[in-house]
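[scheduler] slot 2 assigned
[scheduler] job type: sequence-to-structure, two independent chains
[scheduler] chain ordering preserved from manifest
[runner] begin chain α
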Amino acid sequence: MKNSGNKNAMDIALSRLSRSQTTVLQLRKYLERKGFDLGNINETIKKLVEWNYVNDKEYALAFIRTKRNKFSKKKTIIELQRAGVDQEQTSTLLDEYYTDEHEYQNCLRFAQKIWQTESIKWEKYKNLAKYQHIIREAFLKKKVGDKLLMRGFSFDIVKNVLANEFSGDI
């Protein structure tokens, strides 16, 4: 099946690449949605890879550099796998850019923001009957911990951040 418009797969692919960097998988799916046949898609992608216009490793590097202070390592892995970046390549790059210390600092930064937000919520809840028996610090640690785990931080890092940085009366 050929695209209904008068542009060919290469024109459509180049137009897409001029707006944003994509992986081979993302470009393949895009061209499929545009109605191009598999042979045309494969030939187009083959040429674009040869010309280095599509490079999954470069996509992964750019993604990591952009998101390393916004995402946990685990979330970054998931997003790169969704984009079609090879798992082995992803692991190698992430080991280089996401050190344990960096992951800890990311977790700490998010924990501080979440702690502030949840502290404000606690002020609203603390006078309700069902919260009378709950200790403020336990409530906040539970809320912060749950949200950090949902963001993809490991249990050990979350536990260490909460124990080291949020103990005592805050």
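[runner] end chain α
[runner] begin chain β
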Amino acid sequence: MRLFILTRHAHSTLNVEGRINGDPAIPVPLTDEGRAEAARLGHQLAPLGLQLCVYTRFERTKETAECILQGRNVPFLLEPLLDDIDVGELEGETLGEYRAWKHAHTRADAFPGGESLDDAARRYVRAFRRLLDRHETATLVVCHEIPIRYALNAAAGSPDLDAPEHGIPNTTPYLFDDDALRRAAEHIERVVR
């Protein structure tokens, strides 16, 4: 059985500010609290024979991965398909403004100058399939809240990618085997078709 451990990046400076970031070129470092969270997760995962760590183009995912795996010889792989959603002109806005825009539009509507939730979901499907095509038996994936939320809800067969699981805490490990990750990819694809 293969194991995929998906975790959201650790607590970042934008978590403190309550702002959104969908542009990987904007540096968003971890807080001291975030680095401590990542170190705790690293301690939890220490007994596992991780063979690969996947992260996104966002600095906070790589920094989280490095804190989790400090002192371990695990190869890293950049996977842009798991990047956070491109929110375009909403970059740097508050979570409240992001949520208000989201509630006034459908999943198929692109954020002004960005991508739609459905487009991001299709991108996550491609990323999950890429992971399934690999051969490592234990992979750590450090990414963002939305791909994890979609994977959890889709693997459970929910018709809503945002429910029942909604709030994905920082540095909490979510475990998927091959079947669960494949189910997630297939169900996300059905929901956004």
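[runner] end chain β
[qc] chain β: The CA atoms of residues 150 and 161 lie 5 Å apart.
[scheduler] slot 2 released
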